[in-house]
Amino acid sequence: MENIFGRDIIPSNEFERVAALKRYHLIHTPPEPVLDQIVKLAAKTFDIPMALISLVDVDHVFFKSTIGVPGLNQMSRGASLCSIAILDTEPLIIHYAEEKKCLLNNPIIAAEFGLKFYASAPLITYDGFIIGVLCVVDTKPREFTSEHIQSLKNLAGMVMLEIENRNILDAF
């Protein structure tokens, strides 16, 4: 797998984490209206043009729900900021992306699109595995307050509640 970040992007519990992701049967599945609504709410809450629910698999990051990035449904794990975001249970906030040396080779930051701001909160399963993130993205730098961070964490919690509830219902 390509890795443009110059640091390890594989968590120590990778095998178990991927197994946890697989048990939810979320990848390559139809859109889910509730998850789409949460993504729209995230974009509106932060007055930001792009929001995504990202699921980090072995080699790719799959976008379960998006707003502001039409047609984007996956990308290489080694080029996705979500790969870094799943390494910690705390949100990842990048205020000025082009100021981070490890991100200068990222095609999303260097391209015409020019990602400048990224904030994500991990999607943590009931048994503690980070299967992805809820993220908000902009083409201009932004400030993100502690209140914003808490709101993003709350929205990520709503995503996981919906995923867990869906999984319980599918078991019946």
Low-confidence stretches: 97-112
**How many helix segments?**
5
What's the domain count? Answer: 1
Name the structural class: alpha+beta
Q: Which architecture name does CATH use?
A: 2-Layer Sandwich
The CATH superfamily turns out to be GAF domain
Write up what this structure looks like.
By secondary structure, the protein is α+β, with helices and mostly antiparallel strands. The protein has one domain: Beta-Lactamase (2-Layer Sandwich). It is built from five helices and six strands. The longest helix is centred in the last third of the chain and has 26 residues. About 10% of the residues have low confidence.
Short key terms for the protein model shown above:
six-stranded antiparallel β-sheet; 172 residues; alpha+beta; Beta-Lactamase
Write the layout of secondary structure elements.
Blueprint (H helix, E strand, L loop, with lengths): L13 H10 L9 H13 L4 E7 L3 E8 L6 E3 L4 H5 L6 E3 L12 H4 L6 E8 L5 E9 L7 H26 L1
Antiparallel strand pairs: 1-2, 1-6, 2-3, 4-5, 5-6
Helix pairs in contact: 2-5
